[in-house]
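Quick entry between incubations.
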Amino acid sequence: MTTDEHTVHDLDDLQALADRVIELVQDNPRAADGSVEANVLVGRTRHGLTRFANSFIHQHVGEDTVTIGLTVAVGGRTATAGTTDTRDDALAGLIDATLASAALQPVDPHWPGATPPAEVHGPGNFDPATAAARPEERAERVKAFVDADPGLRAAGFLDTQATWAAFASTAGQRVTGRSTRATIDGIHQTDRSAGSAHQTARSLADLDAAKAGAVAADRGRRSAEFVDLDPGIYEVVLGPEAVSTMLTFLGVYGFNAKMHLEGGSFVKLGEQQLDEQIAILEDPTDPRAIALPFDNEGTPRRSFPLVEAGVTRNLAHDRRTARRAGAETTGSAVPGGSEFGAVPTTIKLLPGTATPEELVSGVQRGLLVTQFHYCRVLDPKSLVVTGLTRNGTFRIEDGQVAGAVGNLRFTQSFVGALAQGQVAAIGNDDRYADGEFGAGVVIAPSLRLKAWNFTGGAKG
Amino acid sequence: MYDYARAAVEAALAAGATYADARVVIRRQERIAAHNGELESVTHNEDAGVGVRALIGSSWGFAATGELTDTAAKKAGGEATATAKASALVPGSAIELADVPVAQDSYETPHAENPFDVPLAEKVELVVGATRTMHEVEGIAVATAHIGFWDTDKWFVSSQGHRIHQHIVEAGGGMDATAVGESETQRRSYPQSFGHYETGGYEVVRRFDMPGNAQRVAEEAVQLLDAADCPSGEMDLVLESSQLALQIHESVGHAIELDRILGWEAAFAGTSFLELDKLGSLKYGSELMNITADATIPGALSTFGYDDEGTPARSVDIVRDGTWVGVLSGRDTAHLAGLEPGGMVRADGFNRLPMVRMTNVGLKPGEGSLDEIIADTKRGVYMATNRSWSIDDRRLNFQFGCEIGWEIVDGKLGRMVKNPTYTGITPRFWASLDRLAGQDEWVPWGVPNCGKGQPMQVGHTGHPASPGRFHDVRVGVRG
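Done. Structure below.
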């Protein structure tokens, strides 16, 4: 511990706090017979967010919070607790209550035991300047985004986040890691349209807010005069943000081992389920990755293929599903995973060789989609999803972007859209490109797909 | 706890804020989940801290700390003001706050039985037993159930003199059964998707009778695998009340948020098709459409004494006889629009900025019953329990999927149909509302997972509704 009575500042403090929680568990009288196990994850998040709308900053927040997540097992009977109170007496009370709660439960048949020792691949990708970013630094970049086109209305956010974490278990695992992320995501609006741009990196210095603003403004202006298109099946070029949404759904509903064990996933391991051009990795070791080096159970995270040449190869496991399946954990445990399952969170679709312009030039009649909006699964097994296009949807005629179209609704199986023979080409423009479920998860390029089922538009 | 809040406010003012408020929040949560007849998780979470807002010129600054000490509270107050000052690099018009009474008061949710005092073994047996019953039905691959509770204390202090303590107790849960076919899954849930929640104690959960509904829920999921597909085309649509509640949430509740109408949520959640100059004249729906935002409904999930700006709970007319007449607002947005503040600003915990959130946005009941509506329908589909939901960024084009449906032929329920979906455009859809059941079937549905804001905050909203009928709706959209 440092300075003020229970202030936590750095990795050493967090590791000391995690060790202290394990000590308190082992000192508890309920642990006297040696039947108690525990995992503890201590994290500190420093988050700064600058939101803007109508071209001014309207929300500006800073947060610095320490959280403790504890799982205990008493003779295989488990309970979980979390708190933001790091004082010794509060922790002792929480631990006692959690052990008492566990002792009252039935035996947890899927409890895999406390996490054993294993080394992580590195300390995590961390930029001290991003962790220490001041509100003024964010505001300056917001100004650059807004000033990219003063004739339009700008809205969006720029945020910086630093995460420090330490894990300890009664089985002897002790690991620490840290990570930073910076994101700018915004739109420029006309009275009839909007265009978007997005950048995410591990360092605030790597964001070019003026460039993002210019891209958003260009898309917004080009979308101002649009026509409404009839629903139907169209060839599409999907920008990285739209592809990111697809990959997120594949990860959450498909490569989730729990969902697979229960028959709800499309994945059939070892089968050619997607086009042979498709290769998807879970890759926390990528130099660009925004990730801690271990998962929510303290297991080292590692790189592994999810899809190779269109063949589904692996699922994302935590220690619970690995035990059920007789497999190895892939270090993919997430908070709430005992109910929801494990999911990949550093997904990467390997790029192709085509430039974005070449993707468009190959389409005789189709649509260029920048971003999807409000996507929801109709059936998880077939991965049929409905959603809309947003912030820049354009017609492609004879290999050229011909003009804007109004937003369209689709109802489409994401697996079907990527099936063998359906992928016309993959772009070379891979980057962090997040969909509607948050920043720092997916690295994706643009994609040209042969068929996409649009089922309606804003007019009906 | 008032001392920490006051210290934060005073520090913010000393640093130059023209207005400041602070909330000390201590929140306990318990969630118990079961899966296929086994206990899956027992989770307790506690978070505590202080969040302080400071206003200077055109922008708020907000800072939060999980340390409940005088030093940390003062530091947060200073940081909130410094953050607001930084916003001057990209300024807007000065923000002013609409007047509200300066209250010094306390409020507690009425509840008969604090859920945290109910023996854990009893709560565990409830969810484990429900999943055991469902899982024993042949064909059910996955049966889950959960119950959850929140016990929240909030101490609010403002530089205008507010001093309010609230103790909010919320309880609820739900269960579902999934049957897995060769290339599809079918799911039924109860009382509604994601569970149903209310303000109140453990009596809320007892009232659901989860064990008594487990068998039926599971059998319906299995039956759905062999059911016919929902017919496709335009026909009358009868919605069960929990689906109608979600329809209200998505196509009315979000659309009437004044911050969205003003463009403050444009980049993330989107804007609204509503324009303020049409307030009082725009036809939102048929004469049967009467919507209120009422934070005073006993037991509803968004019932409280004061919002997170210290504005007293109230009922506001939103749609009257089909005409749009009201919005959801806070003190800053209301002042900008020249309206009365609605008391609809809340935050998801101490470390989130309060923002406009739905209170109990509900549809006043009509007359008659669901049975009478069905008997009065020549050809249509009756759909129940939400399965998927999606709506565009102006809240116009929506598509909803339900878990189950039944054809209606000549006033009678016919065969069960699967994968029922319907789609429409908001005002056109609401204009087609032509029957609405009465008070006896009016339920204050609670939605515990409303997402809004960046970073995403989860809000608890209430949506009272009774079953209703809409004519000539496009149903059976296929992927």
